Amino acid sequence: MVQMNNSEPASSLATRLIAKYNQPVPRYTSYPTALKFCIVDDTASRDALCRETDDHAPLSLYFHLPFCARLCWFCGCTKIISTQSGLADTYLDYLELEVDLVRPGLGADRTVAQLHFGGGTPNFLTPEQIQRLSQIIHARFEFDPDAEISVEIDPRTLTEDKVQAFRALGVNRASMGVQDVNPAVQKAIHRIQPSDMNRRAIDWLRQSGIQNFNIDLIYGLPRQTPESFADTLDEVLSYDPDRFALFSYAHVPWSKPAQKILEQAELPSPEAKIAMHAQSVERLKQAGYAHIGMDHFTKADDSLAVAQRSKTLQRNFQGYSLFKDAEICGFGISAISQSPKSYRQNFKDLETYYAFLDAGKRPVDRGYLLSNDDRIRRQVIMRLMCDMELDFREMGRALDIDFDSYFASERNELNRLSRDGLITLDDNRLVVTDLGRILIRPIAAVFDRYYGKDQAKYSKAL
Ligand code: SF4
Question: Is the pLDDT of residue 11 over 70?
Answer without folding.
Answer: no
